[in-house]
Specification:
This protein has helices at 23-30, 64-67, 84-92, 102-115, 121-129, 138-153; strands spanning 3-8, 11-16, 49-52, 55-58, 71-72. It is an alpha+beta fold and 157 residues long. The chain has a three-stranded mixed β-sheet. It has a two-stranded antiparallel ribbon with strand order 3-4. Helix 4 runs antiparallel to helix 5 (121-129). The model has no long low-confidence stretch (mean pLDDT 94). Bound molecules: FE2/S2 (inorganic) cluster (2 copies).
């Protein structure tokens, strides 16, 4: 079985896997990082979202063969990757219900904060549209995002 190297949460990792194993299974089953969730498996729900730099991707849709040599952030590494403001805002707004969609939502929100300064309402809506939350936490997520923008504006990362 081939061996692949990748970086997860700033730590180099080696995994032995079939080339077509989805990154989501690598994270969960081989590396023990269970923050990314399996929801739909077809790229539409966002539960498996991870970050690559300032963008997000669906880890159920990327094979380890494609992911090799690249660097990813999962929810377990979000704080170290500059996610303190978004995490604090999430708690302030008491966002989470069941929590299943929340790792993906938080990573999407943090990527949004990284890529635009500050994101406008249209960008926030577009980001939320890409994720399914069966608990309907969207209004609180909007509030949390606005709060995180304020925290960043006040110089709190
Ligand atoms: S599990 Fe990957 S998008 Fe739903
Ligand atoms: S908080 Fe339950 S699915 Fe979003």
């Amino acid at each position: 079985m081939p061996r692949y190297s990748l970086v997860v949460n700033a730590t180099p990792r080696l995994v032995d896997a079939s080339p077509d194993m989805p990154l989501l299974w690598v994270l969960r089953d081989l590396l023990g990082l269970t923050g990314a969730k399996y929801g739909c498996g077809i790229g539409v729900c966002g539960a498996c979202t991870v970050r690559e730099g300032a963008t997000t991707l669906r880890s159920c849709q990327l094979t380890i063969g494609e992911a090799a040599g690249r660097s990813f952030v999962t929810i377990e590494g979000l704080e170290s990757a500059g996610g303190s403001a978004i995490q604090r805002a999430w708690l302030d707004a008491d966002v989470a219900h069941c929590g299943y969609c929340q790792p993906g939502m938080l990573l999407e929100a943090s990527a949004l904060l990284e890529s635009r300064t500050p994101p406008d309402d249209a960008a926030i809506e577009q980001a939320l549209d890409a994720h399914l939350c069966r608990c309907g936490s969207y209004p609180r997520i909007r509030l949390a995002l606005k709060r995180a923008i304020e925290l960043r504006r006040a110089g709190k990362p």
